[in-house]
Amino acid sequence: MLSPSPLSLFCALLLCLPFAIIFTINSPAATTAKTTTRAAGETLLSRKPKPPPPKRIPKDDGSLLPLAAARTKNTPTGTKKVAFLFLTTTPLPLAPLWQLYFNRSNTNLYNIYVHADPTFQYDPPFSGVFSRRVIPSKPTLRFTPALSSAARRLLAHALLHDPGNYMFALLSPSCIPIHPFDFTYRTLVNSEKSFIEILKDEPGQYDRWAARGDNAMLPEVKLEDFRIGSQFWVLTRKHARLVVSDRRIWDRFDKPCEHERRGSCYPEENYFPTLLHMRDPRGCVPATLTHVDWSVNIDGHPREYQESDVGPELIMRLRNGRPRYGDDGTNGSDSTLRERHHPFLFARKFSRGSIQPLLSIANDFIFKDRDEGSRMALL
């Protein structure tokens, strides 16, 4: 039998090639791939394109805040996170306690942002969980709009940094957590409302309203709309965006107070509760979740807990405290609201010297499960 020559084999291949091409083009696999590609293309074209993330976050508030309002949405993306916003002029003397707090938590559930007044020295520098968490900051002075500006700046950076940030908690360097992270996280992310103290008809309300001049707040903010509340709040993402997008109300507060009225100038305690009262009172629980003792008032500062004050009994007393709920005719007059008892999650003011006794009860009491910690306090 004769074996085929190389030439005859080559000719046979040439004759079969067109059939192979036709089969490949019309094969089910190729048809499926073509259809899938077309469908994917149609799906992509039907979606609204997302705006690209900013290449560089601007440092000036005039560009930063509008950018945060325009490039973000009210609803978080992915896993809900809590943004911890520290507003400070010191190197966070209670940082070791916060380090323990965050070390016992899931890093995918929170973010940290620090606004540090650049006119102060930070020695030692921020380290641990606070390393590289300082945003571009500006000087902060009492009796000026600077503290409110710093809080707005923190909100803008947190909004732009992570679309998963859902709740935004403003904290001072003298604040401590009084519950384990998991308890705080569940309390906050399960809420659809902000926690911000909104008080009406407080002593000195007119003096605060008129601190920039008798009619300086008009026509945007009438006296009957002016509110007072704690500087420290927890805002939902919706309300964080409301703050950074606001210009109309902020323009009234972003003015210097008259020199002879500086003693009544506390924009950080007035702007946020006034804005939320005017824009979305039903979206707020009108109470702060940061415990403070105003039974002692020294030059506008509350009681400061010292080393000798710290112990499980103090933490239990702070936890068992009842927030003061505002009565603004919308939320506070609601009998169901008055019956609520939201837990304090943080407390202030704690001195530098209190850090060691705080650390000594942190793992065995403060950061233990609530029920377990309560049992230990009774032993």
Short description:
The chain is of the alpha/beta class and 379 residues long. It is built from 14 helices and 9 strands.
Strand content: 5-15%
Distance between the termini: 103 Å
Number of DSSP helical runs: 14
Helical proportion, percent range: 25-40%
Shape: globular
Number of strands: 9
Class by alpha and beta content: alpha/beta
Order of helices and strands: HHHEHEHEEHEHEHHHEEHHEHH
Sheet of most strands:
4 strands, mixed
- Pick out the low-confidence regions: 17-53, 328-333, 372-379
**Mind telling me the C-alpha Rg?**
29 Å
Mean pLDDT, to the nearest integer, reads 85
The strands making up the biggest β-sheet line up spatially as: 2-1-3-6
Write the layout of secondary structure elements.
Blueprint (H helix, E strand, L loop, with lengths): L5 H21 L1 H19 L14 H10 L10 E8 L6 H9 L6 E7 L29 H16 L3 E7 L4 E2 L3 H9 L4 E2 L9 H5 L24 E3 H9 L2 H6 L17 H9 L4 E2 L4 E2 L20 H9 L14 H4 L7 E2 L7 H12 L3 H9 L1
Parallel strand pairs: 1-2, 1-3, 5-7, 8-9
Antiparallel strand pairs: 3-6, 4-9
